[in-house]
Amino acid sequence: MSQSTSGSTVEAIRATVRAYLSALESGSAAAIVALYADDATLEDPAGSEPRVGRDAIARFYRAVDGSPQHTELLSLRVSGQSAAFHFRVTTRVGDAEYEIEPIDVMTFDEQARITGMWAYWSPADMRRIR
């Protein structure tokens, strides 16, 4: 069974994923939250208590506000109104630097705004690099 997705929809979703990683890298919670639909849900990590709505999502992303990180997109697949992507993020915590490679799954509305996000990772996946 296959899902047909127009080229413009695929490109719009790809652009949102790239914008998400760019906003994460810049440490701008406001830029990240702007990519979400008003009634979106977020589970980070997947299986944790869902955060529902932009206000709850904004509170979650405050942790990255003002904390620039390095991100690298490793793979991205789009199917219908959903995307799964594997990326690497390098971040500082105090004097230490950590690297993690989560796999995020997102759903999108017709404007390619994020309607749902599930981040697959656990603390055991974090690797100290410095």
Give a written overview of the molecule.
This protein is of the alpha+beta class. The protein has one domain (7-128): Nuclear Transport Factor 2, Chain: A, CATH 3.10.450.50. It has helices at residues 7-26, 29-33, 54-61, and strands at residues 36-43, 51-52, 70-79, 82-93, 96-100, 103-108, 114-120, 127-128. Strands 1, 2, 3, 4, 5, 6, 7 and 8 form an eight-stranded mixed β-sheet that branches. The termini are far apart. 18% of the residues are buried. Residues 17-115 form the SnoaL-like domain.
Q: What is the correct CATH architecture?
A: Roll
Mean pLDDT: 94
CATH fold name: Nuclear Transport Factor 2, Chain: A
Intertermini distance: 46 Å
- Percent helix, as a range, is 25-40%
Pick out its properties:
40% strand, alpha+beta, Nuclear Transport Factor 2, Chain: A, eight-stranded mixed sheet
List the helices and strands and how they pair.
Elements (H helix, E strand, L loop, with lengths): L6 H20 L2 H5 L2 E8 L7 E2 L1 H8 L8 E10 L2 E12 L2 E5 L2 E6 L5 E7 L6 E2 L2
Parallel strand pairs: 1-7
Antiparallel strand pairs: 1-2, 3-4, 4-5, 4-6, 5-8, 6-7
What's the gist of this structure?
Helices cover 25% and strands 40% of the residues.
